[in-house]
Amino acid sequence: MALLLLAQACQHQHCATAMCQKRSIRFMTISDALHRLLLDNLTTATILLNADLRLEYMNPAAEMLLAISGQRSHGQFISELFTESAEALSSLRQAVEQAHPFTKREAMLTALTGQTLTVDYAVTPILSKGDTLLLLEVHPRDRLLRITKEEAQLSKQETTKMLVRGLAHEIKNPLGGIRGAAQLLARELPEESLKDYTNVIIEEADRLRNLVDRMLGSNKLPSLAMTNVHEVLERVCSLVEAESRGCITLVRDYDPSI
User: Fold this and answer.
1) For the chain, what are the domain ranges?
2) Pairing between strand 82-83 and 131-140?
3) What are the GO BP annotations of this UniProt entry (predicted)?
4) Fewest Cβ atoms nearer than 10 Å: which of 76, 103, 229, 245?
5) Rounded CA gap, 93 and 78, in Å?
């Protein structure tokens, strides 16, 4: 009777052990599948290398970043996936030998397509079944650098705009004074012919003021209109004659067809 009870107990224990082993194997299978699913859905590019720096696995984010297939590239040396400096390969080999993790900032990688990528990557040695594997987590920096550069340009443009506004204010104030003085002077001139000079001063002051307004930018659309080219030429002639004080004589010979 005792032997029968002992045999039944051993049988129950064996069954319990077998069930535990089955549950453990099933749990490991579910766990491995879950880990693979998590890695495949990460937005961070993840690459797994063996001790010889050959590809064991890369997730879809890494495939998109490097524009290669992880399945077709399995077993390839790292330099066949992308190229960097010789110092980088030396650092990876050292990480395998010493099991020492490291991080590199703003590294320049060249993909097989020839595209240059600016990335940050972290290297973590992992011990698996007596072998050392390297886990690479690659974070692209090109978009962040582009955003930073654009923000710096916007800040510089805003600073320049403020300087131009201040400069325009300092220019427009004396222009208003010059224009007003020319108008007062024109009223006191004894000869009507002398008003041509004050008109030149007034017109040039207005031209500079409009130029400053265009530099600042206007909220209104530009108003386009037909212009008589002879008026522009006559204004230039008046400026030249005023500056030369009669030393230069300009002869008009306009084309009547214009």
Assistant:
1) 41-140, 153-220
2) unpaired
3) regulation of DNA-templated transcription
4) 245
5) 11
The total number of residues shown for the chain amounts to: 258
How many whole angstroms separate alpha carbon 108 and alpha carbon 116? 7
**25 token code pair:** 């194997």
Chain centroid to CA 182: 52
Distance CA 106, CA 116 (A): 12
DSSP 43: S
Cβ neighbors of 88 (< 8 A, separation 6 or more) are 104, 107
Question: What is the CATH T-level fold of the domain 41-140, as seen in this structure?
Answer: Beta-Lactamase (3.30.450)
Q: How far apart are CA 195 and CA 199, in angstroms?
A: 6
**Cβ atoms 96, 53 nearer than 8 A:** yes
Q: Which two three-digit tokens encode residue 71?
A: 């399945």
Q: How far apart are alpha carbons 172 and 206 in whole angstroms?
A: 10
Whether residue 40 is predicted with pLDDT greater than 50 in this model: the reply is yes
Kindly report the number of other CB atoms within 10 A of residue 150's CB atom: 10
Cα atoms found within 13 Å of the Cα of residue 258, Cβ hemisphere only: 9
Average pLDDT over residues 118-134: 89
**Global pTM value:** 0.49
* Rounded CA separation 18/24 (Å): 10
What pLDDT digit, counting tens, does each position of 102-117 carry? Answer: 999 888 888 888 888 8
Which pair of structure tokens corresponds to residue 208?
């500079």
| Cα–Cα distance measured from residue 68 to residue 47, given in angstroms and rounded to the nearest whole number | 12
